[in-house]
Write a structure and sequence with these properties.
Shape: globular
Order of helices and strands: EEHEEHEHEHEHEEEEEEEEH
Largest sheet: 6 strands, mixed
Bound molecules: guanosine-5'-triphosphate, sodium ion, magnesium ion
């Protein structure tokens, strides 16, 4: 219906890999930020979403936790994305959640780019990473395969520009498009109840443009968008395709992974959310009655 209105959009890139292999550090280095310092025990426990600009081109990043407990978050991260960055620490090589991440990316059908991290360490062995990846059917370019691989260091900043170039190259091949002129829809990345702000849902707009004042349904909750807040805590007037944004004003907290969409009026929003709540209640009742 809207084929003619589709224009290029930024790639959505999910960072995956084993715990402590340096996913958040890499993103911090790319963004010139310091998220790791604020994490309890240095362990990522939620999904973070950020947008950066390289040579005038935007890239949306989704950070995921590497800890074994967060399988569902990794799976969801792989589903909302165009490209998966597999971070493997060169001193630790391929580990259980590295393999799990490969499987999530393959299941979601998204191309992988390998970032061999921590190459600044004296014990780094990037070649071992490449040969171990071969055993899991990830054939990197430098060994004659098709998967782009880049040796990086979040600590020294080595080759971060090359990693961004590899992402933009892959994105070009994928020829990603969306229509900014239609009603917005997308996916909930995470949501929580904030003491001061009420329900805060981080969403990724996947098509259309989301604006304050619009009415959305997300999973089985709804609301009029009171404000949109970007990854720099700034209020914004609109969120175009591939932009991660916090939505304030929902009646409750949707589930991570829920789809959201703009609807025409409050009555319609209430109708859809009540229908979904009833479905969920019926399902739960059916489970209890065995
Ligand atoms: P989870 O999200 O908990 O899975 O961890 P993560 O993959 O985000 O790793 P994180 O960024 O928390 O980094 C783990 C540790 O590795 C920290 O102590 C970082 O300082 C260190 N680190 C990350 N990248 C590098 C690197 O390139 N070189 C060196 N030497 N240390 C690094
Ligand atoms: Na960590
Ligand atoms: Mg992390």
């Amino acid at each position: 219906d809207d084929e003619g209105d589709r224009v290029s959009r930024p790639p959505v890139v999910t960072i995956m890999g084993h715990v402590d292999h340096g996913k958040t550090s890499l993103l911090d280095a790319i963004r010139h930020a310091n998220v790791v310092a604020g994490e309890a025990g240095g362990i990522t426990q939620h999904i973070g979403a950020y947008q950066v600009e390289q040579n005038g081109q935007k890239i949306t990043f989704i950070d995921t936790p590497g800890h074994a407990a967060f399988t569902a978050m990794r799976a969801r991260g792989a589903q909302a994305t165009d490209i998966a960055i597999l971070v493997v620490a060169a001193d630790d090589s391929v580990m259980p959640q590295t393999i799990e991440s490969i499987n999530h990316a393959k299941a979601a059908g998204v191309p992988i780019i390998v970032a061999i991290n921590k190459v600044d360490k004296p014990t780094a062995d990037p070649q071992k990473v490449r040969t171990q990846l071969l055993q899991h059917e990830v054939f990197v370019e430098s060994m004659g395969g098709e998967v782009l691989d880049v040796e990086v260091s979040a600590k020294t900043g080595k080759n971060l520009d090359k990693l961004l170039e590899a992402i933009l190259l892959q994105a070009e091949i994928l020829d990603l498009k969306a229509n900014p002129n239609r009603t917005a829809e997308g996916t909930v990345i995470e949501a929580q109840l904030d003491r001061g702000r009420g329900s805060v849902a981080t969403v990724l707009v996947q098509n259309g443009t989301l604006k304050p004042g619009q009415i959305i349904v997300a999973g089985d909750v709804w609301g009029r968008v009171r404000a949109l807040v970007n990854d720099k805590s700034e209020h914004v007037k609109e969120a175009p395709p591939a932009m991660p944004v916090e939505v304030l004003g929902l009646s409750g907290t949707p589930q991570a992974g829920d789809k959201f969409a703009v609807v025409e009026n409050e009555g319609r929003a209430r109708e859809i959310s009540e229908y979904r709540q009833r479905l969920a209640r019926d399902k739960a009742a059916a489970r209890h009655s065995g």
